[in-house]
Design brief:
Elements: E1 4-12, E2 15-22, E3 30-39, H1 42-48, E4 59-60, E5 64-72, E6 84-87, E7 90-91, H2 97-100, E8 111-112, E9 124-128, E10 132-134, H3 141-144, H4 147-159, E11 167-171, H5 175-186, E12 191-196, H6 199-207, E13 212-215, H7 221-229, E14 234-239, H8 244-252, E15 254-262, H9 275-280, E16 284-287, H10 295-302, E17 311-316, H11 320-327, E18 336-340
Parallel strand pairs: 11-12, 11-14, 12-13, 14-15, 15-16, 17-18
Antiparallel strand pairs: 1-2, 1-4, 3-5, 3-9, 3-18, 5-6, 6-10, 7-8
The structure holds zinc ion (2 copies).
């Protein structure tokens, strides 16, 4: 009998459905993976709202996942049926100048599995064997689905040149902000302040390594930052929200010569910045997106983190609509929402 793959997709803003596709034959270098856990990412939410800059609807969704290898292409020797794995979900050309110099995240033709119609809110995903990573025995499938966002945090923190003795402020305690805090802690930094407006998220940031938390709704943020960083300002900031106000804060709280790393996804394409301060304080501002050689590091550090703790809600794959609705419900303060095979799970 012909095997069918069922994939969740966003048909129109706010509406999810499923498509059923016959399972196609693998190429020699590919691997088929049965999805065991698949997480909703901020970028999936941009797609769900119909506001993703590069992704037109209808579109399949999901790129943070883990699973079990069910089939391997004829030339794949590294993987065998039954292996527990996660996947780096980008697709790069391998031949452009950036790819050939090793900066594959700058590939001129980079795309992602879900943008090619192979989202991970599905029964199966097909990936190139060389983009597959083994999950250590001590990591659950739930943790395995969170390696991708941890790799994003790893990339941002590696770019930020963190050093022992630095003071760090992270603006935004969504999953990425919390994981950036964890990676700063694992880089040896012990002064890490996280700013957000929701206490449950700040508690999460503390559990993952923040030494200070500031609730921007309740506290006098400017005063708290001065208490934390001193009058000179802090060494490093990370913007993990994607708004003008927080971008400016990430610049203003730096000491002279400090470095701000912008990780948030902005729905606006342009904002204004305090340019006089930028010049007078010799501030450095850089972006960080995606990952490049970061998956092995993320997997290694994940062994020392309680990643499952980030999962606030779990739904069976056939309740994708509810899962997305929940992701946008601020009253439920969702952090990470996971979809798993099966049908009966209560939240
Ligand atoms: Zn993601
Ligand atoms: Zn390339």
């Amino acid at each position: 009998m012909e095997q069918i793959n069922r994939l969740g997709r966003v048909v129109s803003p706010g509406v999810v459905d499923y498509i059923e596709r016959p399972v196609a034959a693998l190429s020699a270098t590919q691997v088929r993976i049965a999805v065991k856990a698949s997480a909703i990412c901020g970028s999936d939410l941009h797609i769900f709202k119909g506001m993703h800059p590069f992704c037109k609807l209808p579109a399949t969704v999901g790129h943070e996942f883990s699973g079990v290898v069910t089939e391997v292409g004829s030339s794949v020797s590294r993987w065998k049926i039954g292996d527990r794995v996660t996947v780096e979900p980008c697709i790069t050309c391998g031949v452009c100048e950036e790819c050939r110099s090793g900066s594959y995240s700058y590939c001129e033709h980079i795309t992602f599995l879900y943008r090619n119609g192979d989202g991970a809110m599905a029964d199966h995903v097909v990936a190139e064997g060389d983009h597959v990573f083994a999950l250590p025995d001590t990591l659950s499938f739930e943790a395995g689905a969170l390696i991708e966002p941890l790799a994003v945090a790893t990339h941002a923190v590696r770019r930020a040149d963190i050093a022992l003795g630095h003071s760090v402020v992270i603006v935004g305690a969504g999953a990425i902000g919390v994981l950036v805090a964890a990676m700063c802690r694992h880089s040896g930094v012990n002064r890490i302040a996280v700013v957000d407006t929701v206490d449950t998220r700040l508690d999460m940031a503390r559990a993952f390594g923040a030494s200070h938390t500031i609730n921007a709704m309740l506290d006098d943020v400017e005063q708290k930052i001065r208490e934390f960083g001193g009058s000179a300002g802090v060494d490093r900031t990370f913007e993990c929200v994607g708004r003008q106000e927080t971008f400016v804060q990430a610049m203003m709280w730096l000491r002279k010569g400090g470095l701000a790393t912008m990780v948030g996804i902005f729905e606006q394409t342009e904002i204004s910045i305090p340019v006089t301060r930028f010049v007078s304080h010799e501030i450095h501002v850089q972006g960080a997106q995606g990952y490049c050689w970061d998956f092995p590091i993320a997997i290694d550090v994940a062994k020392e983190l309680d990643l499952e703790r980030l999962v606030t809600h779990t739904f069976p794959m056939d309740r994708l609509q509810e899962a997305f609705d929940m992701a946008l419900d601020r009253s439920k303060a969702p952090m990470k929402i996971l979809l798993v095979p099966g049908t009966n799970i209560d939240n």
